[in-house]
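Form 12-C: Joint structure prediction
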Amino acid sequence: MNTNRNVRLSRRDFLKLAGVGTAGLALSNYLAACAPAGSNTLNVLVPAAPDPAPPGVGQFSLDAFEQWKKDNGFEVAYEAPPWPQLHDKMAANFAAGQYVHDIIYMSGWVPEFADYLIDFTNDLPADLIADLPASSFSTLTWGGKRLGVIFTLSLLTMFYNTEMLEGIGVKEAPKTWDDLKGVAKELTGGGKYGWVLNYGAPEGIGGVASYWMCFLQQAGGKLYGDDGMPAFNNAAGVDSLQFMVDLMEFTDPGSLSYVGINDATNVFSAGQAAMMMNWPFMWKPANDPASSKVVGKVGSAILPAGPAGSASIDGTDAYTITKLSPNPEGARKLIEFYLDAEVQKRQVIDTGWLPIRLSVLNDPEVQAAAPNAATVLEQAQHPYDSYVTPDYNAVTTAIGVEIQKALAGTQSAQDAITTASDLVTEIVKKRG
Amino acid sequence: MQTSNNYNRSRYRLGIWFTAPAVIVLLIVLAYPIIASLVLSFLKVRFGGDGLTFAWHGVTNYTDLFTNQLFREALFRSVYFTVVEVAAVIFLALSVALMLNHPLGRSAFYRVVLLVPWALSPVANAVLWKWIYNANYGILNQSLIGLGLIKENIIWLGTPWLALNMILIADVWKAVPFIALLMLAGLQNIPSYLYKAARLDGANAWQQFVHVTLPGLKTTLVISVVLQSIWALKVFDLIYVLTKGSPADSTVLLNYLSWRETFSNLDVGYGAAIANVLFILMFMLALVYIRALRPRQTAQRDG
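Section 2 - Result
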């Protein structure tokens, strides 16, 4: 018995089938496109916790967040990838030239994407603006516009293992470069190191070039001159790098391979390294018994002074509003909520990320929960320029690679600085 | 005769209608990006506030490319990485396939275990190796110290050539299973009577391997070499997670360089030019792949 059946399909039948298929696809696409972009939905791009994240991604002020949404009639749709993916995502979205997000977290990328952002800070309440450090807007100002608002005071400061320092009779953190080198030398040995940091990634804030910028400013140098051209091929530039090179002898050699701050933080939290510089969030995990062996033994201080004094860099964690946002008013209100004093307080108590509001920073409850807050405030009295520009990634990659060669001992500090200066000059000229 | 021609013509037309959706999808998802990438490589692309702005840049991106030392180094490293990886993967995969083809190795259990590295997602694989290579806590250092082979921790990802080769090892580990299964399928296609005849002629194991196994695996080997070359050329995940191109750009390969220029430095045209060089290399390998498959198809039709 022949079980094969001939199915006749005329051209008309085929076209009918194709039509039904196309209509089905179009309908599903239409429904998918409509769902997330309703007018009462604010789309927000932020990093996943434990990086600095707002309520709803970070586990704090959740009830207040629900209440805000109810009171204001908004839904908030978060996209929260790991921090390293943020820049790629926003670059791809901006390149598409279409609305994707209302609010975007930025870290040093404001000049790079300035044309895609709006200046909304003049519409923030006056009492809120007055409660923010004026200097917090410096890295967010480009072309005369303030294109975002910092939500956490995030400067690099020194963290040290009090037990290890006391073990060699040192009661407080090193105050100068010489102190730092001396203490690091004494504490290095037996599988332990005086210093640890992640020198593995060259670029961006938190890359090796940005760490060198701390030492550069401590040496009295600066990255750019008044003409906007590189101004670090001088004694300050070389001395600052030479200090990092000298410190390598007492640094966990793994530092050259650590590509993220958590790699270095783990070494410190395991009690394997005595000192490091880190962002303020470090205080909480380093004192959490679940993740740290140095609970209760963590000290915090401003970074040691070079020839020109102490200096740091700014993490520049900010919220911005995109130019294509259909609801900039709602986006601004949500940012105001993120900066509400009570939300800021819960931010530091529950996540360790310091607030930016001065009134909250000076709150006794906050200072008790985050004793390093006072240190960060003190660090803010010293220079902390991150030198962000539209080509910050290219600039820091060029500098970072040369610094890595010097730290690995394959070229001198002088050669590294000269080459880096030439490369940055080329990049700046290209900027046009 | 006329009816037969009409029938064939209508079958042919209907075939075109049926294949049209697939062709259209391929044009959208393959041809369009390839052409767009080619066009981008001749443009100066800027992020201009309303999407991107484009300006004709001629062949400048390509001339910049070939005068750029980092590109030349990345090209050399990519070729080195590909050659060494292909050699290592083919050797290991063939060894594994021979063991699995042995009566003692035919248990399905071994094949399932073999598939684990291949089944891991690329990023999970990279994170796994990141912990293995960790300078202070990595199992590699701990094991070697435990065995008395080294006295101090080695910074596996801290020196240029060592870091590149450690990435290579991690990539080989992931690539071996698939190629081994491919070879196993090839081995099982070799008729057993050839081995019997060889034994009757007095061939020892090595002679059987050289004169029966290797010729029988010729097509499989060519396909494996070509596929593995393409996969090795486009390695990205391991570099992104393990080293970010460090130390001192020593693990920057072409694919990573293209990503860095495009998404990190936002030099889209230059990044596209690098991607196109990579595409040409892969395209040439794909031609070899197609040619390797052709004799078998001809033989099947003739048969």
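Section 3 - Comments
Residues 2-56 of chain B form one domain. The two ends of chain B are 27 Å apart (CA to CA).
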